[in-house]
Design goal:
single chain, mainly alpha, Butyryl-CoA Dehydrogenase, subunit A, domain 3, two-stranded antiparallel ribbon, elongated, ALIX_V_dom
Length: about 800
């Protein structure tokens, strides 16, 4: 039985690489999957070849070559292409369920772990009784340690960034990997010590220094395990830590024992005995740990034999010193430390440090595909552009326009001067508004939109109910082992959002009930519309028939007020034109795409192209919208001044106008029709927002439902007697068909839907994006990958 540790493989499982890659190319790029048939086949073949379950030297090149391809693939693809990758935890039994993640960085990390394990297994098969065998074993242990070091310092850093810490498999935790790394370095140093002490018969002092370095490395490995969390400690076999601690004390004892021989040869008999006391203490510790820890028989026999040898030499040295030399014996605490000599440092295989050299003659996989980082940078830019357009330009302009309309309605303008200037007939502005409503077939348009909003709300509710039915079924199957708390929390948030949205829908419907009569009146013919607006008895201000002494003053204030209203109207029209120009620029904004692709093409083939590399380009391109933002903001102060002037002038106008009930009745009628038009605009805008809101939410809930189905299917595999597995197969197709029939045709939302900001009583609610959880939801891990604390 070997007296050195061996790291087993993380058992891997077949992955549907070809289908996942085909689906990703089809759904996420403008390329055709058939153009990458060779790449799909090559990737699948390399993975299968590197999954060998028996240690063989030929596996080294295969695994290094596959790792090199993964490094390159990760420059072309995001980590999540919906490819489910499964590995069992190391040291687990065959009955342990694998951990499944949709993460290519997980695949790379697992391949590196298994390469480090392969080197350790190959080292254990070498004949360490021969010069060549022990040299090769040392080399393999150095390469094993180097591989684990590369995994810890390079691959795991990217896995930490891309994967939530709680979802990272514990056997890929940095503390776990570093402990194994140090154990492999210690075993390489032990092999070097064995060659120096047993085969080369080097001087005792040098052998002592080599042994002390072995002990130091084992101690570091053991300390990491002892300081790790309980969940990390329990991953190791029960005798692993005991083995390492036994070796730590064993080689500390060897170092003192060899130093004692060196002291005796130098006639330092007191120091010799002091070293023997130290060696005996260390050997006793190792013996006690080995006896309690159930270590391998060879390890126990080694430390037992060492303890007996040290005890015998101690007895002999005590007798000689007592009878012959009479030298003072230093205490163990006062002994000088034995300097350590490392001769077998870790070695990172060249194919890992330079992946390009390990690809082989066939070339790289996905070499003709543009890097995902450039495409993602373009998507991020487009998202930022849309957000900037919506918040800083479109919404900002709409809010300023709403402020004008609200202020004028509060002042009964322009109805009050329309009633004075045109005592009979209808003002042109009102006629234009009525025509707009008639051409839109306003009432019918609103009724149809209300029905569509209600239908989509019901569809979203049905999607969420179906998802909850799946979760409830899982819960009833195995309440004690239930692991869907995260999904049920998401469902509760979605339910709350739906409830709030439906309350807003009801508010819009009530607004329509209140405004319907006025909007339908606007659809009447001009002659019928004139009948609902009474004529005033006062002569118009421009008429020569006016005999009112204050008429001239009223006329003066009316003209001034009309001029201010025209200035406000011009300002709003100019602002609306600014918004239209910005929208036209955004629609034809292809410069950033060309710039990013040009820069990406100039980077090296193996460059890790991330979206952050293009932040400068994105910032510069977004800067061209500053002129429109400034134009919108620049009108804010001017608008505030005009509204102040309107308010002051309106007071003068009202004070100068004679009391006339017919004018007031006409004003009220014109104001009611003007208010009906503004309600019509507001309601149609609300309904448009609602339709987009529910369409986007339907895509999110459909994703959520699929995640719930995947979860329950996984659980049903754990519980094969469950009838859930049979029922879910039919449910999946049926529910999906129903969702496709009920949901209106729409594009899949690119980002979390957020309703436009609005006044609480006038629009649908604005919800924070953090409430949505709209990212793609991977299927839940099996029991072995449940959230760990």
């Amino acid at each position: 039985m070997p007296n050195l540790l061996v790291v087993p493989f993380k058992q891997s499982y077949k992955a549907p690489i070809k289908q996942a890659l085909r689906d990703y190319i089809h759904s996420s790029t403008d390329l055709h999957p058939d153009a990458f048939k060779w790449d799909m086949h090559r990737w699948d073949t390399l993975r299968e070849e590197s999954r060998g379950i028996a240690p063989h030297v030929d596996q080294i090149d295969k695994m290094i070559s596959y790792h090199a391809q993964l490094v390159f693939i990760l420059t072309k693809l995001p980590t999540d292409i919906k490819l489910e990758i499964a590995y069992a935890p190391v040291f687990s039994s065959s009955a342990t369920l694998p951990i499944t993640l949709r993460n290519l960085a997980f695949e790379r990390a697992a391949v590196l772990f298994n390469l480090g394990a392969l080197y350790s297994q190959l080292a254990s098969t070498e004949d360490r009784s021969s010069q060549e065998g022990i040299k090769q074993a040392t080399k393999y242990y150095q390469q094993s340690a180097g591989t684990f070091n590369y995994l810890r310092t390079t691959a795991l850093d990217k896995l930490d960034i891309l994967q939530d810490e709680e979802n990272i498999p514990l056997d890929l935790n940095k503390a776990f990997v570093e402990s194994i790394e140090l154990a492999m370095v210690a075993q390489a140093q032990e092999c070097a010590w064995q060659k120096a002490a047993v085969m080369d018969h080097l001087k005792n002092l040098l052998v002592a220094r080599l042994a002390m370095k072995v002990s130091s490395l084992y101690r570091e490995s053991a300390e990491i395990i002892k300081q790790a969390s309980p969940s990390i400690k329990h991953l190791f076999p029960s005798d692993w830590l005991a083995h390492i601690e036994t070796k730590q004390f064993h080689f500390a004892a060897v170092a003192h024992f060899r130093k004692s021989i060196d002291e005796g040869e130098s006639n330092n008999y007191g120091a010799e005995l002091g070293r023997l006391y130290a060696a005996q203490a260390e050997a006793q510790k190792g013996y006690d740990v080995a006896r309690r820890g159930n270590v391998a028989a060879t390890v126990f026999k080694d430390v037992e034999a060492l303890l007996k040898k040290v005890q015998a030499d101690t007895t002999r040295a005590e007798r000689d010193n007592d009878l012959i030399y009479h030298q003072d014996v230093p205490s163990t605490a006062t002994l000088a430390a034995i300097s350590e000599v490392p001769v077998a440092p870790l070695t990172v295989p060249p194919g890992l440090k330079n992946p390009q050299s390990a690809v082989g003659d066939d070339g790289v996989i996905l070499g003709d595909m543009p890097g995902w980082g450039a495409g993602e940078a373009i998507n991020i830019y487009n998202d930022h552009k849309q957000e900037l357009m919506r918040e800083r330009i479109i919404d900002a302009a709409q809010m300023l326009n709403d402020d004008v309309n609200d202020a004028l309605r509060a002042l009964n303008l322009p109805a009050s001067i329309d009633a004075l200037e045109r005592p009979i007939g209808l003002p042109p502005s009102l006629l234009q508004k009525a025509e707009d409503v008639r051409l839109d077939d306003g009432p019918a348009r609103i009724e149809e939109a209300l029905e569509n909003v209600e239908r989509l709300a019901d569809h979203n509710t049905r999607l969420l109910d179906e998802a909850m039915d799946i979760l409830d079924g899982e819960a009833s199957e195995d309440e004690a082992a239930r692991a869907n708390r995260e999904l049920t929390h998401k469902a509760a948030r979605y339910r709350k959002i739906l409830t709030e949205a439906q309350a807003s829908d009801e508010l819009v419907r009530r607004k329509w009930d209140d405004a319907e009569t006025g909007v339908r009146t606007l659809c009447w013919d001009e002659a019928d519309l004139e009948m609902v607006v009474p004529s005033s008895t006062i002569a118009p201000p421009n008429s020569s028939c006016s005999t009112n002494p204050g008429a001239e003053t009223t006329k003066k204030h009316a003209r001034a007020l009309r001029s201010l209203l025209e200035s406000l109207s011009d300002l709003m029209a100019e602002r609306n034109q600014c918004v239209l120009r910005a929208q036209r620029v955004a629609e034809h904004d292809d410069d950033v795409r060309l710039r990013i692709l040009r820069v990406a093409a100039g980077l090296g083939l193996w460059a890790d192209v991330t979206p952050a590399l293009f932040d400068d380009i994105s910032t510069a391109e977004l800067g061209k919208y500053d002129i429109y933002i400034q134009a919108v903001e620049g009108g804010r102060e001017m608008q505030a001044g005009l509204l102040e002037d309107v308010n002051a002038q309106n007071k003068l106008f009202l004070q100068s106008r004679k009391e006339d009930t017919s004018i007031k009745e006409r004003e009220q009628a014109l104001q009611a029709l003007d208010m009906a038009y503004h309600h019509y605009e507001e309601i149609t805008r609300n309904l448009s927002e609602g339709l987009k809101f529910y369409n986007d939410l339907a895509g999110i809930l459909a994703q959520f439902k699929e995640a719930c189905k995947a979860w329950s299917l996984q659980r049903s595999r754990e519980l094969p007697s469950s009838p859930l597995a049979n029922s879910l197969q039919g449910m999946s197709l049926g529910a999906q068909s129903s969702a496709e029939e009920d949901a209106p045709t729409r594009r899949k939302p690119a980002a979390t839907p957020v309703r436009a900001k609005a006044k609480p009583s006038q629009r649908l609610p604005s919800l924070n994006s953090s409430e949505w959880e709209s990212e793609d939801l991977p299927p839940p891990p099996p029991r072995s990958a449940k959230k760990r604390k």
